[in-house]
Design goal:
CATH superfamily of the largest domain: Metallo-dependent phosphatases
Shape: globular
CATH class of the largest domain: Alpha Beta
Distance between the termini: 19 Å
Bound molecules: fe (ii) ion
Oligomer: single chain
Strand order of the largest sheet: 14-15-16-17-21-18-22
CATH architecture of the largest domain: 4-Layer Sandwich
Number of helices: 7
Number of strands: 27
Largest sheet: 7 strands, mixed
Radius of gyration: 22 Å
Length: about 500
């Protein structure tokens, strides 16, 4: 009885902290920064035209010339390219370098060399879009580590993804690269992913653990063109085309999820393309059965995005944040509709994994909306067979990665889990990779039209000015839409918390 009272008291205390949603975990226990070399945190990112441009960002410990060479085969083609928007400045204790490379040739394999101080250098490679109507990419989410060992576990998942889809045009990371977004954690990330990041073009999406609440902190880990979007505090909004797909990245970490200026930008952006496919990346998941979906920011994100995604014929939304895999059926107006948008919560590549919160069903997510679900957690490893969430598979306990292939009018999505090793240090233990979900979407090509050609830019000042209406919108959603549903759900939540210790 005493324990029960304690649990009820805990629930009440949690309710009083409804708006304290994003407390960041305690700082990493590692105090020392590992040796990172003289050129580190190297990224090659999408930046504008994916056939002819790439953005590079890297760091050095000391000030030096910002220098990169680009090669096509054995030929140094740097002289024929335009290197612009060069940045070389001190940033939070290191020296940051950025370069936008223009004038690349479509459909070409390139290598590059980035030079650091004292004759040091680092090499990498990328390929440009060839202009056909095919694109292949990898999606991972939520490594969210704070020590090198856990970053290495996330990197093992990413390595398996790259080996599964070796010709991927890019890798999208759906946020929460780190836990506290410290210099040390970004260094660990760079060390763990060394040899993976250097061979791919990256599409970065900021998570709520990545921003540090410092303007441009996340932006300064990459060189991405955000000039025609909304400038936000803890992440980036931008878009690009690859193959016959238009991709938009939305930062869901400011103002608790998404702001009015962001929604305006997103709608204009999605209406300014006639690409056959429209895909949106974000960190927080509008639909989930994880621990974070019971809070008002999720419902606000779900309901405020819905009309934009519906109006703009978005085919697929990929997200993270809730550390499990869940795919919805196509949804339109919050109902199953074969012409609607498929939402995929892309599992976690890392080692922090969430249980199912079945008490959410019927309140924030209807069971008939769920098409597939897998929990990766040790002791659970659940999957949904269409009727029950209680089925378990040992192979479901591991890191999740996703491969997506678009070929003309067909999109094929496959999700995998690489089973955790019994002994993490056993190099001889073979990887067990299991397909946990696969689906296809088919559509007629040439159906989308350009409906907007005006200005899409939103300045930092306009974004800040939009903060008040955005917060008012969130508060009204919270009081009118979220709170009544939460209160109806509360008895179930309390029961599950007391009997299963799941909150
Ligand atoms: Fe997150």
């Amino acid at each position: 009885m005493k324990k029960t009272s304690k649990k009820i008291l805990s629930v009440i205390l949690c309710l009083t902290m409804i708006f304290t949603l994003f407390s960041v975990a305690a700082s990493a226990d590692e105090a020392a920064t590992p040796e990172t070399g003289d050129v580190f945190r190297i990224s090659c990112s999408v930046n504008g035209d994916t056939a002819t441009q790439r953005g590079f960002c890297w760091y050095t410990k000391e000030s030096c010339e910002t220098k990169i060479s680009v090669f096509a085969g054995d030929v140094d083609v740097t002289e024929s390219l335009t290197l612009c928007d060069v940045v070389s400045e001190e940033w939070e204790g290191n020296f940051m370098h950025k370069v936008l490379v223009k004038g690349l040739t479509a459909g070409t394999d390139y290598t590059y060399r980035i030079y650091g101080p004292n004759g040091t250098y680092a090499d990498g490679s990328f390929s440009t879009d060839d202009g056909d109507d095919k694109v292949e990419f990898i999606g991972i989410a939520d490594v969210q580590a704070s020590n090198l060992n856990n970053f290495l576990k996330g990197a093992r998942t990413a390595k398996a993804a790259v080996e599964t889809m070796p010709n991927a045009d890019f890798v999208v990371t759906l946020g929460d690269y780190t836990n506290d977004s410290t210099n040390e954690e970004w260094d660990y990330n760079a060390i763990a992913f060394d040899g993976i990041n250097s061979g791919v073009t990256q599409v970065p999406v900021a998570g709520n653990h990545d921003g540090l609440g410092v303007w441009n902190w996340f932006n300064n880990m990459f060189c991405v063109d955000t000039s025609e979007s909304v400038q936000t505090l803890n992440g980036m909004n931008y878009s690009f085309d690859y193959g016959n797909v238009h991709f938009a990245v939305v930062n869901t970490n400011d103002l608790l999820s998404v702001s009015v200026p962001q929604l305006v930008w997103l709608k204009k952006d999605l209406m300014s393309t006639d690409a056959d496919w429209k895909v949106v990346f974000m960190h927080k998941s509008p639909y989930s059965l994880g621990k974070d979906t019971k809070w008002p920011d999720t419902l606000y994100l779900q309901e405020s995005l819905e009309s934009v995604l519906n109006d703009c014929n978005v085919d697929l939304v990929m997200s993270g944040h809730d550390h499990q895999y869940l795919r919805t059926k196509p949804l339109k107006n919050n109902k199953v509709d074969e012409d609607g948008t498929v939402y995929v919560l892309a599992g976690t590549a890392g080692s922090k994994r969430y249980e199912i919160r079945e008490f959410i069903l019927g309140h924030f997510l209807k069971e008939n909306m769920v098409a597939a679900m897998t929990v990766q957690k040790d002791g659970y490893g659940n999957y949904w067979d269409g009727t029950s969430f209680d089925n378990t598979k040992e192979t479901n306990i591991g890191g999740c990665f996703n491969t997506i292939s678009v070929d003309g009018g067909k999109l094929t999505y496959t999700a995998y889990i690489i089973k955790d090793k019994t002994d993490p240090n056993d190099e001889t233990e073979e990887d067990v990779i299991t397909v946990i979900d696969q689906f296809t979407i088919e559509k007629e090509q040439g159906e989308n039209e350009i409906e907007y050609t005006g200005d899409k830019t939103t300045s930092k000042a306009a974004y800040i000015a939009g903060a008040v209406p955005s917060l008012l919108g969130l508060v009204s959603y919270t009081l009118i839409n979220w709170l009544p549903r939460f209160l109806v759900m509360l008895p179930k939540l309390v029961y599950v918390y007391i009997t299963q210790d799941v909150f």
